[in-house]
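> example.struct
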């Protein structure tokens, strides 16, 4: 396997900045790809050891391009996550004034994060989506658009000027990125972990989603993300992308996954990995009756009952 990481490029994306915060990134060749799909396909094809891509932001929630790529195709697994605070700059060619800007571009996930600023400052500007924020900066450099929303750090790389900085509609906006590789044994639990799955119902029926969520709720497992995505099989056909607290080696998480496997048409395990938002000592205590010790004690009790030793 090549000692390389694919990432959503070109150079100068927020994805690259977040990737370089991983210590292991210093020992890998970092290769930009034109899209999330191509970066993940590089892993599936064995061209890269792992791919680093955005998966969620605090303004709009899950990034559907990444979620859909993880739902479809050959299985991949999440091994790490990184949180990065996001603020945008308006990048232009030198000499451009705000009144000169008729067209702007950026990654689609950026638009909801600058919508109000754009309405207040460039209400007549036409928005066009780019493959990434850095790609938008490249397109401005080439003269395709007048301005791009990107990281201020991308300006020098593409010979542009930051006309405005610190642009954001929501204070403390963050984007979550994940390191994705081929399926293998998950890393050992840290005490502050997250587990990601995709669920497909057997059929559409009243209370169907409640049944799925009940497998988590009955075991005291907190959900951190729940997003429905169309399966492509017709209107009303959805799967559910879910992030939960905990690790697959935790008894309550393992039992919840077993319950889901029994009632779902399909369950895709996307990995158990360390959380980026909290240290083990900051994790909330397990609800009464949901610790590993209590699950094991209950299992022992059932075994004793079966043996007539109760």
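> example.seq
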């Amino acid at each position: 396997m090549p000692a390389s990481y694919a990432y959503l490029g070109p150079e100068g994306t927020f994805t690259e900045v977040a990737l370089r915060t991983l210590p292991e990134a210093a020992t890998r060749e970092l290769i930009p790809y034109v899209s999330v799909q191509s970066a993940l396909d590089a892993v599936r094809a064995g061209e890269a050891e792992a791919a680093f891509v955005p998966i969620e932001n605090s303004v709009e929630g899950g990034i559907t391009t990444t979620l859909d790529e993880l739902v479809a195709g050959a299985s991949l697994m999440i091994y790490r996550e990184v949180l990065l605070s996001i603020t945008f700059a308006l990048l232009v060619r030198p000499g451009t004034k705000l009144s000169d800007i008729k067209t702007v571009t950026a990654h689609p996930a950026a638009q909801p994060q600058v919508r109000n600023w754009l309405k207040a400052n460039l209400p007549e500007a036409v928005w066009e989506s780019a493959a990434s924020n850095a790609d938008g900066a490249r397109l401005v450099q080439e003269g395709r658009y007048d301005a791009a929303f990107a990281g201020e750090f991308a300006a020098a790389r593409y010979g542009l000027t930051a006309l405005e900085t610190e642009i954001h509609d929501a204070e403390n906006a963050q984007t979550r990125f994940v390191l994705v590789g081929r399926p293998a044994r998950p890393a050992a639990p840290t005490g502050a972990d997250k587990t990601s799955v995709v669920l497909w119902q057997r059929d559409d029926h009243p209370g169907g989603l409640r049944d799925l969520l009940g497998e988590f709720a009955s075991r005291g497992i907190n959900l951190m993300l729940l997003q429905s995505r169309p399966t492509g099989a017709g209107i009303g056909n959805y799967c559910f992308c879910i992030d939960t607290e905990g690790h697959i080696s935790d008894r309550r998480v393992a039992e919840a996954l077993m319950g889901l496997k029994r009632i779902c048409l399909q369950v895709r395990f996307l990995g158990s990995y360390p959380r980026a938002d909290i240290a083990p000592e900051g994790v909330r205590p397990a609800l009464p009756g949901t610790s590993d010790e209590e699950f094991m004690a209950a299992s022992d009790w059932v075994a004793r009952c079966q043996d007539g030793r109760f």
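> remarks
The two ends are 54 Å apart (CA to CA).
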